[in-house]
Structure formats: C-alpha cells, structure tokens
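Thread: quick sanity check before group meeting

JM: Hey all, I'm pulling together slides for Thursday and realized we never actually wrote out the predicted structure for the chain we discussed last week. Dropping the sequence here so it's in one place. If anyone has concerns about the input, flag it before I start.
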Amino acid sequence: MEEQRIALLSEVIAFIEANLQEDLDLEQVAAALHYSKYHLHRMFTQTVGLTIHAYIRRRRLTEAARALVFSRRSILDIALSAGYTSQQTFSGVFKDLYKMTPAQFRQVGSFYPLQLEYTLEVPPQNVRLTKEAIRLARGEDIPAWMSLTRQVINGFPHWVETDYRKRLGQSIAYRRAFILFDGPLAVGAMILSQRSGHIHFWAIHPQYHARGLWELFLDKLTGDLMPGRVLTTTTYRAGDKADTGYRQTLLLLGFREDTLLTEFGYPTQRFLFLPPNHAQTQR
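JM (edit): ok, ran it. Output follows.
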C-alpha cells in the first residue's frame, strides 16, 4: 500500500516537472493521472508538506530565479514561462518569496532555490527511531546528508549548495554535526554549536514530520547534549510567505520569539528555547 502511494505521488511530481511551463492546477494534474483530486490533494499535502499548488508555484519561481541569473532572457519571457500573464504579477509574487524584485535578483547574480524537485522514498516499515540513534556525522555520511538537505531547502533562505557543503565538512570535522538514519535514508540532521547553544541547521525529512523526529532531536539536545542550556536558532519572520511551516514547528516545540535579524540579506528572527529550570538557575 505504501509503495503504491509513493509510486503514484512520484508520477505526480514527474508530471509536474515535465510540464512546469504549462498552465497547471490540481484538477489538471489529477485528470492526467486519472485520480480523484480530493484524494490526491490530501495525499500530496500529507507526504510532501505542501499543496500541489504551492509546490508548482515554488518550483516555477525557483526555475525563474535560475533563468534570471544564468540566462539573458527578458524578465517578461521568464515571467510567461513561469505561468504568469504579466511581468507585474510575476514581480510581485517573486518579491514575496525572494524579498527582492526579479531585476534586483538578476543584478545581485546569486542564485538560490526555493524548492528543488522532490524525491519520494519508501521508508522502512515498523522501525522505531530513538534518540540514541542520533549520532555524530562522519565524512561518509555527506552524500546522504546532502540528499536530505535538498529535500528541505524550503526551510533555509539563501541556501547555496557549494557553500553549504563546505561548511558541512567543517562542522563534521569539529564534531558539530549530528545525523539520524532510517536504514540507508538520512531522516534528520542538525549542526549545533555546543559552546553557544545555537542550532545552525536543523532538518527533518518531510515524510517523517508526523513521526515525532522534531521532538526526538529536542529530547537529545535537552537530555544529552545541552542539558539545562538555553538553545537558539533562526527561522522566517512572522508573515513571510516563503515559510512552509518551520516557524510554527518551533513554536509548537516550545521555542519563543526573540530578536529580528537579517542574515545573508534575508529578514529572519531568532528563537529561544528555555529549559524548565532556567528561571531557577538564573536566581
């Protein structure tokens, strides 16, 4: 049953990728796959963490951003290829997610994706993951780590793969990188500064969001790695249309809002996690 669901959704993604320049919507995708649009909407959203509409929009804008940096096509031509009927409409949506106009993005000349093509996996069945399985990452884990990271770049503004891979290698060397596998699949990863308590990177495979892995990593932090310590991390600011739920995840985990920041030219916000005994230890 799980294999059939993954196979169907993989067909959906392949169809979307092959027709990104077409006028696609849920009804057309469902009709092409001969499947109920209501069931397809529910399955896609539960598995990928985005609606089909949001996935298509983010993929189109990512490819539009790529074309702005790596081609000399006009902005109007790129806008039409991304499914927009006017340059003005395209520019507004682009700025909502990239925080600069297409012309500004082209001038800066630094491409980063909002959403890469999603690759679905058939996870091992009936495997109970524990915090004890979260371990320090090793050099041989880098390919699996990078595969996970490409699935979750929607949570990390201004993600540039070459720069990230270099920093990952350094983090592994300094024993700051932690990883969790389910069989051969990397399903969770974290880069942590144990000196400052800052979480530089924290990712859970989208297909595992409902399996308690966010809580598992937090339990590892508060119980084993950083007991009694204040933790910090950053994510999107409130109301940012690029956020697909990472801010809400932190709030549900017990983090609280803190300082507004700008990182790599992108508006973000610091979040704090205070351990239960923090107020007493401060006295």
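AS: nice. The longest strand covers residues 185-193. The longest helix spans residues 52-70.
JM: adding both to the slides.
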